[in-house]
Design goal:
alpha+beta; three-stranded antiparallel β-sheet; two-stranded antiparallel sheet
């Protein structure tokens, strides 16, 4: 199975931290100051790095990093 951005459920933003879930129950977090996607809201447990398209990472870059991680887990 291949994942796409449509497979992510955006849970919103709280204290600057954006959250997503998948239908399978995986949870992902990101803050604009983080260069990674995290397993927990504190950002201390990085899952995958973000490669911004240009400049500073944005929400779309975070979503792309999540999908890349889902399709090619380490």
């Amino acid at each position: 199975m291949s994942y796409s951005i449509e497979d992510l459920i955006y849970k919103g933003e709280k204290s600057g931290v954006h959250g997503w879930n998948t239908l399978a129950g995986a949870t992902f977090y990101w803050h604009p100051d983080w260069l990674h996607i995290a397993e927990d809201m504190t950002g201390h447990s990085a899952m995958t790095n973000i490669s911004p398209v240009k400049g500073k990472a944005n929400k779309a870059d975070a979503e792309s990093a999540i999908v890349k991680h889902l399709n090619h887990p380490k």
